[in-house]
Every structure is written in structure tokens, then in C-alpha cells.
Amino acid sequence: MSQAEQKKLDLLITGVGGQGAILASDIIGKAAVTAGMPIRAAETHGMAQRGGSVVNHIRVGNDYGSMIPKKGADLLLALEPMEAVRYLDFLKDGGIIIMNTQPIVPVTVTSGLTKYPEVSDILDFLSEKYIVKAFNADDLAYEAGNRLAMNVVMVGAVSGYLPIPKETLLDSVKALVPQKTIEVNLRAFEAGRQKVEES
Amino acid sequence: MTMREYMLGNVAIARGLLEGGVQVIAGYPGTPSSEIIDTLAARKDRDYHIEWSVNEKVAMEVAVGAAWTGVRSVVTMKHVGLNVAADPFMTLAYAGTKGGLIAIVADDPSCHSSQNEQDTRRYAQFALVPCFDPSTPQEAKDMLPYAFEFSEKFEVPVIFRPTTRISHGKSDIELGEIPVEKPAPNFEKLLDRWVMLPKNARPRHTHLLSIQQPIEDALAESPWNSLELKPDAKFGVIGAGIASAYAKEALVELGLDVSYLKIGVYPVPRKLILELLETVDAVLVFEELEPIVEEQVKMIAQEAGIEVSVLGKNNGFVPREGELDVSAFLEALKKTFDLETEAETSGTSLELAPRPPALCAGCSHRATFYSMKKVFGKDAIYPSDIGCYTLGIQSGTVETTLCMGSSISVASGLYHAGEKRPICCSIGDSTFFHSGMNSLLNAIVNKANITVTILDNRITAMTGHQPNPGVGYTATGEQTVQVSLEELCKAMGAEFVSVVDPYKLEEIQEAFKAAKEFEGVAVVIARQPCVISGKRAGIRRTPYVVDPEKCEGCKQCVKFGCPAIEFDEQNKCAVITALCSGCGVCAQICKFDAIQEVKR
Ligand code: SF4
Ligand code: SF4
């Protein structure tokens, strides 16, 4: 693999509107610029954000469009289990999935129209074809000091795979989260990173 | 050293306008265009006028006035907004401008948050004005100063057409200089230009036609079109706008030796197209939405008597609707070269629950719709409009959505057609100011018998919380008059106007009952700030909890549809989650008094 190719990474972040997928992608994007790499990203805005399913494309080291081709993503970062499955078409066979196991139940389920699949079934299904690292990121964020830092836990979790130095990512966390929450978010990042390193 | 920054496409566009020395910016919010004005309005060191206008037509006219003084102006909107602004725009093409005028009209292939997929490039053709079609956020930014200059050179307005993936894409952007010197405004009284009497319009039409060729020639030389001819290549690809980036990526990936023409601005570069056509046997045209380039290529080939097959949307090689991507390009190539297409393999045995967007927990629209349904019942007809509240389709109270401001007029039409069922339409405050006012006036004067509900959440919520004339401040946060919806409706002749708090179910239901009885146009204004902007403004409410002792598991509160209420099947009891914003509506719905405020 050439130097340039090693620095290319297509990453998909999926989740539910309101979980902070955009901030997670911004942290990575800003860090990539600091590290001097071209970066492209696409995100969901507007109507779909109101608790709907959202997906962000992030392409590090890429000069073209912001959309990852089908079966093109190296990595899928899922902030919610069911949303990990919804966009699998974009992930390479044998690709890596980092998944938060904490479900968010949609209104279609609470109102009794449909059922939420068992998280264990989701995990079994995903493990057949992909490399899966799953853990409850909400709990880790809570231990770090704030449940809302779940998205930063997930950035920490994916950080080892990114062609961007850890320090640069941390600087970008500091620059983008609210001043008061920097400490909590740095802890959240470390918690996520450790979780994946251990597994 | 050049500065690079990571930014949203719309922020890059805003930056491009600054680098182009813009002095007046007006627009109406609409996804995916809204962040352009939001970004510029938030800047502290402003030396330009910026506003959210009440609709796109008005915004266009403000920009026109400014450009006629010789300064550079911009109007922003989404694609369907140009339908509203089409009236001034079509004639503006005749009159032309002095200062550069750019109409930024964002297209939304695949209707990510729109009611149709119309292609703004058709309007450019229709009006005979140039159209810039960026392929990346960087190019979008770089095009704008050029577009201003171009507009001034030919004294003609130009369209700038980003698509969703440009506007809401993010990228590292190389920044340029922002000019400090700007021209002073000076309105020249050119009556034969600014007064479109027939006697003036006729020669202006001739003039507009006469500059088409010079415009095309100038654009062909611009950096936005480029031709790469490969020696011996018998196959060519033409990519336009963002689709050209997808095509290029796939071609590089496959290492194919084909000739490639990128088009970034219209009218299309006839010279470059001819050069390409003369060397190949077939071309594949790849562009989002309508087959505009494709049609032009066919015409050019025919006129020049060149035998070449043109593949694209018309013969099914590229889909005509929806969004394109690299995969769509690969599909088209496979069809062209008759290759096997892989069978889709992503089958899953897991049943995924759909996750449609929903009104927020505690959104007052849900409470209004709940009460509306209670009073008007299943039999009534519910025309509605465009905004967050369109999501009320889940409450069964949104039965039509045509375009901004249409709910009241559609309701009138239903009534005048002889519908005997009760008709209760709904419209947001911003949408009402946009163009609902005209419809209300019309309904009143023409004696419709309908109930009009103004869902007054004190903001334009869906597009990102922009101010409207009801809130008392401008785009830049400056204080201004606060227009009273109730006084406005009364002034238009409405004899029944009732302002209610939708969180108080009894109060709003009483109002709906009275409105239903009323002969004529009854207006119910349901007023409660959007929970998101309310929270930002410091409104704090105590959350609610379900007392499991008292809960009978009747699911009435669950049926209400608030995302904060879940049902615990094991214990047959409702549960309120951390999403609760404390509106207190579910507590009023519960017959067993099982829902109460959290005690502190
Ligand atoms: S009080 Fe009830 S209806 Fe209102 S937000 Fe909380 S759970 Fe939802
Ligand atoms: S953003 Fe505001 S108006 Fe829109 S659904 Fe949420 S609470 Fe309601």
C-alpha cells in the first residue's frame, strides 16, 4: 500500500437525529484539516433531523464528491444499533463496525406499529460478515460525567483507525465542544478509545 | 500561506459572497439553502445589509433594487422558492442589472426535504440567464466572485445552483481575500431599462437574445468547463455540476481511458462539446435532475451532422429522478458496455422498524393537532402546509400539502366546491406571513366557511429557527416591530379570532368548538414557542413522570405520540424518558391521574 492510500479512509456515521452525529463528524473533519489532509463530508439536515434516521459520510484523504459509493466505506460508526443495519449497503464486505448498543426506540415501536429487533440478534447478524466492536457508549459517557458526551466516546472509539494523530483529534474536541464540558469530553474520548483497544 | 478551513458548503458559499464584495443579501429560509444567510447574519463585522424577507418574491425584489444602485446583491432560496419569485425574475432578465446580482437557488434531488425535484437550470434556460453549477463546495466558493463580475460585465442577473450535497456537504476550503473597498450606491435613472413598458420591454428582449452568444463564448473560456481529450478514445463522458465529481471519481478508480468533459456553467459550451463529439462514437451524459445537457448535446450533434450515440436519461442509462452518486455512474457504465450487474446482496433477515422524523417531545403542534382531531373528528378535512407541522401527518390532521401558503386557499376551494364536511386547515406563523395572508384575505372576502388554525410557534422552526415578522427581531438579532397575528387577521376582516395556549387542552378545545360552529372564516391562533427555541431562550419546565401504582396501562398517553413516552410491556405501564420537556399535555390526557410533575 502506498503512503497516499494508507491515508485514505471512508467512514460512515449513522444514528438518530439529536444524538450528535454532526459534532462527531466535525471533530474528525476539523482534525483532518489540521493534519493537512483533504476531507469531504455529507450530512443530513432539515426535516429528517427531528428524531429520524440520520447518516453522515466522511471521506478522509479524498478529493472528489462527499458521498461514499455503495460498498465503499472502510468503517461504520453506529451511534445506535438499528441504525447500524440500515446503511450496511455502504460498508465494504469485511469492513469494521463500531457500535453503541444502547437502542433508541422509534415512535413506530412505542405506538405498537412495529417491533424493535433484539440487540443480540443485530450483533449476531452483523458479526457474520463484518468485524464488530460493540459496547454501551451511553454508559461510558455517563461514567465520564455526562450522557450527552456519547458521540465523543464514539469518536474516541474510532480514533485508533483514523489516519489522524490522536493529539490532533483531541485538539479538535477541545475546540468544538462547549468550554464547560471539555474535561468530561476528554474523559469520554479516552473511555471510548480504551474500550476498542482492549477488545 | 493559504488558509484552509473545514466548513459546510453553505458556509463556504457565504464566504464566497464576502470575497465577492456583496453588499445586500435577502432571502427566505428553505432547506438546503438556509445556512447562507444564517452564517452571514451572525458575523459581527458586518458591512452589508442582510435580511430574512417574508417570501422569495419580496427578497428577489429587494436584491433587484440594490443591484440597480450599482452594488452587488444576492437573493437566496430553495428551488421551489424560485416559483414564488419567478414573476420579478423573468422580467429582471430583460431589464438587467448594474451591480452584480446572483440568485442562489438550491436544488434538492431526491427530495430530502422538499415537495418536488424541479431543476433550476430549466429556469435559467427559460429566463435566458447564465447558471453556475458547482461540483464541490470549494468550487462553489470560488465561483461566486467570478459570478458577480460576470453579472456586471453583461449587466444580466445570474443563477447559482448548488444541490443538497454541495450545500450540506463539508470540505476543507482554501480561503481567499475579502475586499475592503466597495462601490458607493448610485441609482441611475435609466427609464428605458427600469420601466418595463411594452415599448421598453421589446428592445430589451432583443438585447437579451443578442448577448446569448457572447455570454456562451465567455463562459466556454472560464475555468468551470474543461475538456480532457484522450488520444484514441472512442468513448466520452460529460459530467455536469456535482455529478461531474462522481463521474471523475469512478473514471479514475477504474483507470478507464475515455475523453471527459466537465460542465460547470450554462449555456453549455458548444465549442467544447463539438470538439468532444468529433472524436468519439458515443458519449454518456451524467447530470442531476433534468436531461438538460443531454438535450443540448443531441441538438449540437444533429446540427453539425455528427453521428454519435448520446447515452443518458432519455434512453434509461441514467435515472431521471432522484440523486446520483458514484454507484449510479458505475451502473450506467456497465449498461453501456453491456457488463454483468452484480446481484444486490445486502439482504437481511432482520426486520428494521422504520424511524420517520417526528414532532419533538413537547412540541405544541402535537397538542394542537390532538385537540383539533378531538373536536373536528375523523370526518373533517384537514388541509395543511409546509413546516415542522407537516409531520402532523402522523396525527391524522395533515391531509394536503401543496406549496407554501396554500392550505387556506385549498381549504376555500374544497368549501366552494360544495364539501359539506367541516374543514379545518393549519398553517405556521412564518408560512402565514410568507403567503398565507393573501389566502386568508381571499377566503374572508369570498365568504368561505372554514376554520384556519395558525400554528404560532414564534419562529421558522423547520429550517433552523429563523425569525419572522411575528418575533420582534431581525436576522441579525436587532429589535424591530413585532407584528400581531391577531390584529392582522382582524384587519383583514376576520370576525372570529381566538388566541389560545395549545398546552391547555380544555381551552383550545373550547376554541375549536366555537370555531366549528362559526359561519364564515374562523381563525384559531395556537400560540406556544417551539420547544427548541424556547429552551434556548431560557424557558425551563419541570419534567413529568408516570406513577406506576396509578398507571392502568391504557396507553392513551402512548397513543398521543410524544417521543418521550414509552410503554413497558413487562410491567404494563407507561414510562417517561429523559426526552420529556415538561409540556404537561400527557398529564391532562391520562384519565387515571397517573402522570405528574417530578417533585423536587
Ligand atoms: S410532559 Fe408528557 S407530553 Fe409533554 S414532553 Fe413530557 S412526556 Fe411528552
Ligand atoms: S423544532 Fe419546534 S416546531 Fe419543530 S417539531 Fe420541534 S418543537 Fe415542534
Automatic annotation (TrEMBL), chain A:
It comes from the Archaea. One of its GO terms (molecular function) is indolepyruvate ferredoxin oxidoreductase activity. Gene3D superfamilies: Pyruvate-ferredoxin oxidoreductase, PFOR, domain III. It is an enzyme of class 1 (oxidoreductase). Keywords: Oxidoreductase, Pyruvate. The keyword tRNA-binding does not apply. It holds the Pfam family POR. Its EC number is 1.2.7.8. Residues 17-194 form the Pyruvate/ketoisovalerate oxidoreductase catalytic domain. It catalyses: indole-3-pyruvate + 2 oxidized [2Fe-2S]-[ferredoxin] + CoA = (indol-3-yl)acetyl-CoA + 2 reduced [2Fe-2S]-[ferredoxin] + CO2 + H(+). InterPro entries: Indolepyruvate_Fd_OxRdtase_bsu, IorB_Oxidoreductase, Pyrv/ketoisovalerate_OxRed_cat, Pyrv_flavodox_OxRed_cen. Heterodimer of the IorA and IorB subunits. PANTHER family: INDOLEPYRUVATE OXIDOREDUCTASE SUBUNIT IORB. Catalyzes the ferredoxin-dependent oxidative decarboxylation of arylpyruvates. This is Indolepyruvate ferredoxin oxidoreductase subunit beta. It comes from Methanosarcina vacuolata Z-761. The lineage of its organism: Archaea, Methanobacteriati, Methanobacteriota, Stenosarchaea group, Methanomicrobia.
Automatic annotation (TrEMBL), chain B:
Its cofactor is [4Fe-4S] cluster. Binds 2 [4Fe-4S] clusters. In this family the first cluster has a non-standard and varying [4Fe-4S] binding motif CX(2)CX(2)CX(4-5)CP. [4Fe-4S] cluster 2 binds at residues 562, 580, 583, 586. It catalyses: indole-3-pyruvate + 2 oxidized [2Fe-2S]-[ferredoxin] + CoA = (indol-3-yl)acetyl-CoA + 2 reduced [2Fe-2S]-[ferredoxin] + CO2 + H(+). It holds the Pfam family POR_N. One of its GO terms (biological process) is sulfur compound biosynthetic process. Transmembrane segments: none annotated. Keywords: 4Fe-4S, Electron transport, Iron, Iron-sulfur, Metal-binding, Oxidoreductase, Pyruvate, Transport. InterPro entries: 4Fe4S_Fe-S-bd (IPR017896), HACL1-like (IPR045025), IorA (IPR017721), Pyrv_Fd/Flavodoxin_OxRdtase_N (IPR002880), THDP-binding (IPR029061), TPP_enzyme_TPP-bd (IPR011766), Transketo_C/PFOR_II (IPR009014). Residues 542-570, 571-600 form the 4Fe-4S ferredoxin-type domain. [4Fe-4S] cluster 1 binds at residues 551, 554, 557, 590. One of its GO terms (molecular function) is metal ion binding. Heterodimer of the IorA and IorB subunits. Catalyzes the ferredoxin-dependent oxidative decarboxylation of arylpyruvates. This is Indolepyruvate oxidoreductase subunit IorA. The lineage of its organism: Archaea, Methanobacteriati, Methanobacteriota, Stenosarchaea group, Methanomicrobia.
